[in-house]
Structure formats: C-alpha cells, structure tokens
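Can't paste images in this forum, so I'm doing it all in text. The chain is below; anyone willing to post the predicted structure tokens underneath?
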Amino acid sequence: MLRSAAKMLGLSALLYAFFFLPIGDYTLYGHVTRIAQTREAKELGGELSAAADDARRSLSQRIGQLGNPVEEREP
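Text version of the structure:
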C-alpha cells in the first residue's frame, strides 16, 4: 500500500510539473503543444498515419489469408 501511495505521489508531482511549472516562458505542456503545431510535426504526423494505415492493411490481408488454407503442391 505504501508503494502505491508513493507511485501516486510521484505521478501527481510529474503531472503538476508538466502542466504548471514554467520552463522559460512556457510550461512543458506549452512547449509540447507549440512544437506539435509546427509544419514539420504535422508532416511527421501525416507520414506516421500513412505508415499505420499500410501496416493495418497488410495485417488485415494476412489475417484474411489465415482463413484460406494454402493448397499443398505436388513435387
């Protein structure tokens, strides 16, 4: 129980620091949101989304092939 309380206290401290303690002119949250709004970050997000779609399609095809057993060929 003491470990759980320590973990919750640590997590609370990290969240407080992330949202409320300024690092320079902005909090860490402010820095992250400003970085996420840049053109480069948006391009990266689009590329990651396209890669995830490709992976999803590939996985769907492989799962679909599992239902169709491969016929054995004679040598």
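Helices lie at 2-20, 28-36, 39-66. Strands lie at 22-23, 26-27.
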